[in-house]
Design goal:
Blueprint (H helix, E strand, L loop, with lengths): L5 H22 L13 H39 L2 H4 L3 H4 L8 H14 L8 H24 L8 H19 L5 H10 L1 H4 L5 H9 L10 H8 L5 H13 L10
Helix pairs in contact: 1-2, 2-5, 2-6, 5-7, 7-8, 10-12
Organism: Eremothecium cymbalariae (strain CBS 270.75 / DBVPG 7215 / KCTC 17166 / NRRL Y-17582) (Yeast)
Protein name: Exocyst complex component Sec10-like alpha-helical bundle domain-containing protein
InterPro entries: Sec10-like, Sec10_HB
Length: 253
């Protein structure tokens, strides 16, 4: 699957060649005066062609982005194993701390598609495409965390995956608008590292939304912490810190 079809890329290249010819041959040699000949049929045709191509490329990008996100979701669903973040305690000591197979597949998939448009269209279009994919990928990572059970032993492996995603976004993609999203996401892993013996400290951490770069609200962090494997043990202390009392303390008369 590619973001733009061969036909679309040919049209984009065609516009680039036409624009160069228009600038270097017609404008430079004063065959056409772009300032005076605004009613010139050639200029109007060029503008109409550009508008048509913009719409065509936008439609192609949207289809391509949807297909790419479908593929990312498929990789998450088929390769993110339950034991990735909730491993058997007896096997943790022998397990290498590195990105999961799922994370490496996701980053490879993104690498293969993020830079397809480089040299084929203008920087503005590339930026819009990369930012849109980056934001939607961020949302998929959030959903992926919320559907997994994460133990304190498995937290380090979740953090490893989140760091891997952040490194790709910050150091390879370099789209400044979405880097803060993944910086905030990176800190989410810390709420799973806290021992259940320090459940009150966990509650304080959830209340400190600034700790998460302002990306997530307290309610969103609370949704994350419910994915802890020991949630039933820490819930009462966490809710008492957050709300002043635990839900289990409430009695319906």
């Amino acid at each position: 699957m590619s973001v733009l079809s061969v036909k679309q890329l040919i049209l984009v290249k065609g516009l680039q060649i036409f624009s160069i010819f228009f600038r270097d041959k017609l404008i430079a040699k004063k065959i056409v005066d772009k300032n005076k000949d605004f009613l010139n049929e050639l200029i109007q045709t060029k503008k109409n062609f550009e508008m048509m191509l913009d719409d065509f490329v936008a439609e192609g990008l949207n289809i391509g982005i949807n297909k790419l996100m479908d593929e990312i979701l498929f990789v998450f669903n088929s390769n993110q194993l339950p034991e990735d973040f909730n491993p058997d305690p007896s096997t943790v000591k022998n397990r290498e701390i590195k990105p999961s197979k799922c994370a490496t597949m996701i980053v490879e998939l993104l690498s293969n598609h993020f830079f397809l448009l480089t040299g084929a269209t203008d920087k503005g279009t590339i930026d819009v495409f990369q930012q849109e994919v980056g934001e939607r990928f961020f949302n998929e990572v959030v959903k992926n965390i919320k559907k997994n059970i994460i133990s304190t032993d498995g937290a380090i492996f979740l953090i490893c995956d989140l760091n891997y995603y952040y490194d790709f976004i910050a150091n390879k993609l370099k789209q400044k608008q979405i880097i803060p999203l993944f910086a905030g996401l990176k800190t989410v892993g810390q709420i799973f590292l806290v021992s259940n013996k320090d459940s009150k400290e966990l509650g304080k951490m959830i209340c400190d939304v600034g700790k998460f770069q302002g990306i997530f609200t307290q309610e969103e962090i609370y949704e994350f912490v419910q994915r802890r494997a020991d949630w039933s043990r820490v819930r009462k202390d966490v809710e008492r810190v957050m709300y002043g009392l635990a839900v289990s303390d409430c009695i319906i008369m």
